[in-house]
Design brief:
globular; alpha/beta; 12 strands
């Protein structure tokens, strides 16, 4: 069993970005399922724990790899997250047993429901420990024709199909009878239909322009972002480009200049004057990552008056936020909702980051001199995602329902791939791949702006345009598009994930009243 768990974990890792073999995801679970499907309940739970422990232990090495620059406590954070996911793996193994052995559901159905149910659970149902990183459908971001189905059924629906094919392959290999061949043939035909439909959609779907935007990639090295002079290095890097960014923005009639995550650290009263100067020099609104503040009692946004702020100073906590600056000041804020477990959210840390309540759409308006020329089209609504929030389908869905015209993901992935060999990680490519899924799901372009990369534009069909080379400073233009209206996923497709959870719970109910069909004498190896 342990060998099978290791082999399946390696195949899952081999399918994930930036691997050139994404199709491995369709067979990655086969070794583990063949070994685990006939085990007793306890042994099946242990088998699931082995699979998840090995897989996530390797897949999340970027947490201590990146965080050891900050402190050794990130190693403990990695262990805690991996342990939590290992326990979820045990739940997956037990659920597969109940659905397949007790409820007697076909293996492809039982396997896909069990896998996606625990994937939804770890993404949405664990509160502060929720962690949507590296879902099994992520390799499909490298297979655009298959990815288009996400506009109907979302990431959970894609995952359901991927895992069902794994189950069909197990059945075909273990028992190549006529029934199994028909089952596998039906799933392959469904996969081909999805691919044909996706290719047709890519070739023919009309997309509507949402204006131009200018991005600035400062490319400040990590070492320069630490210590008392960190803000000085960032200020120099941005000011080297802000005037050119403003000229480009005015020349192409851009909606805003966009900077990456937490360009400057420190309370708003210490940094706002710098952002205001940059906005003045740009001549258009400025969207930027900032260090925000929330009242820990009333969750008041940064727009409160100075007298209120002085009275609440003792209750304020730091947030990782995004703000829109105009000549009138910081007119809108949104605060990061999802914090990385154990890294940004640490138990007992009174000075650490706190999450916002929900993502807030940011309105970007033409400045007064430009409104007359733009006619009635003088406002755009931006949905900001901070760093790892791109892995959260629920946040993007909320923003899409609020009618945003563009997704903007501000981040700093230099932690995952700077010069030293020990900082380089596949996570540098895996992180932006999540944003591809979010864009296709909601039918809105996604603009990703990183301090050191990857800075790119993703269209609603999942096509990616690199705007600047990684780790090089510069400015670039991005022309956004979107669907004419909401995708089917935004309207009703999000229900798929909860139907899967409900079906799994129903299967557990059936298993509870069904006679046991466990084989005797089978033990984990």
């Amino acid at each position: 069993m342990r060998r099978a768990a290791v082999l399946s974990a390696l195949l899952l890792l081999g399918a994930a970005p930036p691997s050139p073999f994404p199709w491995l995801v369709f067979v990655a679970l086969v070794p583990w399922v063949r070994a685990a499907r006939a085990l007793e309940l306890g042994a099946a739970a242990r088998a699931g724990a082995w699979l998840f422990g090995v897989y996530w232990g390797a897949a999340l090495l970027w947490i201590p790899q990146a965080g050891l620059r900050v402190g050794a406590w990130t190693l403990a954070a990695w262990l805690a997250v991996v342990l939590t996911l290992t326990l979820i793996g045990a739940a997956f193994g037990a659920l597969l047993h109940l659905l397949h052995r007790r409820a007697r559901w076909p293996l492809p159905l039982a396997l896909s429901l069990a896998w996606v149910a625990v994937e939804v659970a770890r993404t949405d149902l664990l509160g502060p420990l929720s962690f949507g990183w590296l879902g099994i459908a992520l390799p499909l971001t490298q297979l655009p024709s298959l990815l288009q189905a996400a506009a109907w059924v979302g990431e959970a629906g894609l995952a359901l199909g991927v895992v069902a094919i794994n189950g069909a392959v197990v059945g075909l290999v273990s028992d190549p009878g006529r029934g199994r061949r028909r089952e596998a043939f039906a799933l392959v035909c469904a996969l081909m239909l999805v691919a044909v439909f996706g290719a047709r959609r890519i070739a023919s779907l009309p997309l509507h322009p949402q204006g131009s935007w200018v991005v600035v990639q400062p490319a400040v090295p990590l070492e320069a972002r630490r210590g008392p002079a960190a803000n000085d290095a960032s200020i120099r890097a941005v000011e080297a480009h802000i005037d050119a960014a403003g000229r480009l923005a005015r020349a192409i009639d851009a909606w805003a200049v966009v900077l990456p995550e937490t360009v400057l650290e420190g309370a708003p009263e210490l940094t706002t004057h710098v952002f205001m100067d940059w906005q003045r020099r740009a001549g258009v609104p400025l969207i930027t990552g900032v260090e925000g503040r929330l009242d820990r009692v009333t969750a008041t946004h940064d727009g409160q008056s100075s007298s209120d702020r002085a009275g609440a100073a003792a209750r304020e906590r730091r947030t990782n936020a995004v703000a829109v600056f105009t000549p009138a000041g910081a007119i809108a804020y949104t605060h990061k909702v999802w914090l990385v477990p154990g890294v940004e959210r640490r138990p007992g840390d009174p000075d650490g980051w706190v999450p916002g309540a929900r993502p807030q759409p940011l309105t970007v308006e033409r400045l007064a001199p430009l409104r007359a020329e733009s006619g009635p089209d003088f406002a755009r609504t931006v949905g900001a995602l901070v760093c790892i929030e791109s892995t959260a389908p629920g946040l993007t869905l909320e923003l899409a329902r609020d009618g945003v015209d563009l997704l903007v993901n501000v981040t700093n992935d230099a932690w995952l791939a700077e010069a030293e060999w020990w900082t380089r990680s596949p996570a540098f490519a895996q992180h932006p791949a999540h944003l591809v899924l979010r864009s296709v799901e909601v039918g809105i372009s996604a603009l990703r702006v990183g301090n050191n990369g990857r800075t790119e534009l993703i269209d609603p069909l999942g096509r990616r345009m690199r705007l600047l080379p990684d780790h090089q400073s510069g400015i670039a233009r991005a022309d956004a598009v979107r669907h004419a209206g909401p995708t089917p996923y935004v309207q009703w497709g999000w229900v798929v994930r909860w139907l899967i959870v409900a079906a799994s719970l129903a299967g557990m109910g059936v298993a509870a009243v069904s006679p046991s069909r466990e084989p005797r004498g089978v033990q984990a190896r």
